Amino acid sequence: MSSPSASPPSSPASTSSTLTEERSTRTMADVIKNYKTEELIDYLRRQDLDLKESHFKIFRQEEISGRAFLNTTKEEFRSYGLKGGTVTVLVDFIEEITNQKLRSYSSYKTLDDLKEMLRKNKVNGEDITNIKQFTPVFEEIDDNNKAFNHCMDDIILKLSN
Fold it and tell me: Compositionally biased, Pro residues: which spans (predicted)?
């Protein structure tokens, strides 16, 4: 018999909505801050920032990881030997990704929302080869996590029926 003071366990619906809220409040900076230097360089290469190999050499020499990159100021970039134009591009880019919320495609509720997203990503509707490559977000899940085990049990039950 349970005591009246015991709190009710989290229902799958409330857990799901909490996860959705957490994902929708994450920014691209939350992903980038975990990048090692080479992962950061690979990411920056895929962006349209006009960076050269000499810039990436500085990133390696200064051991700039994702977290360090996000906290680097204009003055620090200049002290590393980067030129003014590159510094401005990098600082603007950091500000942009700090405010860029991650949003799953399934969260677009209307056709207008989807069209707006496609317009922002410069997809003209005729040629899908121009769609920008996205950076997947990987989440670490502990094998002993109760919500994870509950979901896996539910999936296995549904598959066995």
Answer: 1-11
In a domain, 55, yes or no: yes
The token pair at 128 is: 């899908």
Predicted model pTM: 0.52
Please calculate the CA angle 149-155-159 and round it to the nearest 5 degrees. Answer: 145
Could you tell me the two tokens for 25? 């409040």
Instruction: Tokens 């799953």: give the residue.
Output: 104
Burial category of 39 from C-beta neighbours within 10 Å (exposed 0-12, middle 13-18, buried 19 and up): middle
For residue 27, give the 3-state DSSP assignment.
strand
Count of residues making up the chain:
161
Number of separate domains in the chain:
1
Alpha carbon 132 to chain centroid distance?
Answer: 15
Closest C-alpha among 100, 99, 69, 101 to residue 87: 69
For residue 45, give its domain range.
28-102
| Structural domain includes residue 2 | no
Per residue in 31-41, pLDDT tens?
Answer: 888 999 999 99
92: domain CATH number is 1.10.150.50
For residue 76, tell me if it sits in a domain: yes
CB 71 within 8 A of CB 41: no
